[in-house]
Amino acid sequence: MNIVVFSAHAYDKRFLNEANQSEVAPFNLVFHDVGLSMETVAFAQGSDAVCIFVNDVANGPVIEALYKLGVKGIFLRCAGFNNVDLEMAQQLGLLVARVPAYAPEAVAEHTVALMMTLNRNTHRAYNRVREGNFTLNGLLGMTLHGKTVGIIGTGKIGLAVAKIMKGFGCHILGFDPAPSAEFLAIGEMLELESLLKRSDIVTLHCPLFEHNRHLINSERLALMKPGAMLINTSRGALIDTRAVIAGLKSRRLGALAIDVYEQESALFFHDRSSEIIDDDIFQRLMTFPNVLVTGHQGFFTNEALREIADVTFQNLNCFAKGTNCPNAVLPT
Ligand code: NAI
Question: Alpha carbon of 307 to those of 8, 73, 289: distances in Å?
């Protein structure tokens, strides 16, 4: 079977090649570093399936084009599937499968790293000390023990964050339409508005859907405690970035850390250090001393990459054998 892998970086090639095990006929992997889009879909010519990541575009027209090229499956190397037009895939009979969980603790640990860094300004201290500047002005943080952390989306990653923050001695709040018993054992479930009003730190861990795009908008920011910290390691469009910039400028929002950004597909996962970045909203974010951005690296651990590769081949083997795929996003 021929599988075209889009958005393939050196680390993807390494882990996928190591995990390439077929139970039927060998998988021939063809790697492209470009993302899937209408401009690049022709690379899928002659393939049985495509393997994509978070910023690849599998919208209606792209899926139609894949179908016309004979592609019968879309295999996501990630949990989120907001970039795939599921209705179109179902209509055309394409299998869409994902990796539902790959070390949720890895994302949770990165989330906490962002909180800790932003709170105690270790990123700024690192640079200062290297320059021989040992002053403390501007590095003041808060003691996390006793603070309230509001977790929006209390699934696998949200629960892992809750457990870590509970260990810090924080009070844990959660908002989730389907809370788990495990979360209820350590946190208090609230309506979103109450969570926003009571939390010193709000952290987002729900999937992105059309109905919760810009979940954090100017009205919801106005409900947050003055000076509260907002963290997003889930999906960029959960936050209205313009509203957040206004919140930072008015000093109402205390600090922001993001590992995901609404327009990240034009920036992340590539070296842009010699380019002019045209995204003025992103560049405005970069000017705030109380904003910390990482380029979608929450998942980026050895363990998670190995799990992603292994589960991707389990999914591909179901596809090759024509058996039921437990990680199918749509019923098969
Ligand atoms: P999960 O499916 O275990 O949990 C998601 C939870 O969100 C569920 O409990 C669900 O009921 C809840 N939920 C759904 N809609 C909601 C809403 N409107 N408001 C509040 N809660 C809602 O998913 P998991 O594994 O915890 O991942 C969460 C998200 O993290 C993924 O959808 C993905 O967007 C993001 N992610 C980010 C990564 C990174 O590298 N930064 C890596 C992996 C995932």
Answer: 16, 20, 36
The residue-averaged pLDDT of 173-182 equals 96
Nearest partner of 282 among 300, 253, 260, 297, judged by Cα: 260
pLDDT at residue 23 in the model:
86
Q: Whose CA is nearest to atom 11 of ligand 1?
A: 178
Quick: pLDDT tens for 193-206: 999 999 999 999 99
What rounded mean pLDDT belongs to the chain?
A: 96
**Other beta carbons within 10 Å of 177:** 7
User: Is 264 an annotated catalytic residue?
Assistant: yes
Task: Please provide the DSSP assignment of 230-272 as one string.
Answer: EEE-S-GGGB-HHHHHHHHHTT-S-EEEES--TTGGGTTTS--
Pocket of ligand 1 (CB under 6 A): 79-80, 101, 104, 107, 152-158, 175-178, 205-208, 212, 233-235, 259-260, 296, 298-299
Catalytic residue from among 235, 252, 262, 275: 235
Instruction: Give the Å distance between the CA of 285 and the centre of ligand 1.
Output: 24
Q: Name the CATH superfamily for 104-293.
A: NAD(P)-binding Rossmann-like Domain (3.40.50.720)
> pTM for the complete prediction?
0.93
Establish whether 18 is a catalytic residue: no
To the question of domain 2-102+301-321 being in CATH 3.90.1230.10, the answer is: no
| The predicted structure's pLDDT at residue 15 | 97
Ligand 1, from 182, 234, 262: best to mutate by most atoms within 8 Å of Cβ?
234
pLDDT 10s digits, 5-58: 999 999 999 999 999 988 888 899 999 999 999 999 999 999 999 999 999 999
